[in-house]
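Hi L.,

As promised, Prenyltransferase:
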Amino acid sequence: MRKLLILIQNLSLDVTAGAIICSLYIARLFGVTLENSMLIGLGVAIWLIYTIDHLFDAKKGSGNSTNQRHTFHQKYFRPIAFVALIVFLIGVFNLYYLPWVTTKLGLILALLVLIYIGSLHLLKLSKTWHKELLAAIIYSFGIFVAPLSLLEHWDVFVFYVFVVFFLIVITNLLIFPMFEHENDKNGDNQSIVTLYGQRFVRKMATVILANNVLLIVCGMVYLNPVMTGVRWLSSEYILFMMTLALAVLLMFPSFFQAKDRYRLVGDGIFFFPLIYLLL
């Protein structure tokens, strides 16, 4: 089971599945139903973004990387690249079945991805903090693209949920480099932690988490009276659980560092919305 879990993590299948679950969750909150073509498009987009990013890292790496995923993509570079090409073609074919309004929002996502890949791997603007921020924007926007495209208008609740979710994603992307600091340093890989230090990143993650808790509480107090009660009250517990899990990672770093438990929890929080979907 552990080998299977590692394989799933190396292939970014857990991240892809989590994104699809979160998008279904957001759609349920907004009262819309996603078509199969939208779920396929999201899965293809998220998997390709992560896989291409890992392939670029593997290509520029020399020898065996200290990062588990980089090592995997170095070893199986050609087979993974071939599968990525097939998945890309599936995505192109799937465009025919997507509503035009969804495709238009998807083009914005594609532009963000080009900026991310281009600045990070082609222009090599690595000595900045943009990597984690752009990745959080892309992941969050990718999850919201399909649900947003089905809404006739975007109300306060829509923007509110996006902000809360985005803060969860950016905190997740700040915490992971803290646990991978030694591997990144030994493998000469840059991250926000190698650039600014663990103390700075820990403070930033803590402040974001604290603000997110306040946002959730404010939503309960101020948004609930104007929104349908069931819609918000049945969702804020999920968002709070996701935020709390990240806070636990920050509080007990030694425990979650062992056996890469941090990855299981950090990636696992995006499966929490499945609880809401099954209720």
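The chain is about 80% helix and 0% strand.

Thanks again for sending the construct details.

K.
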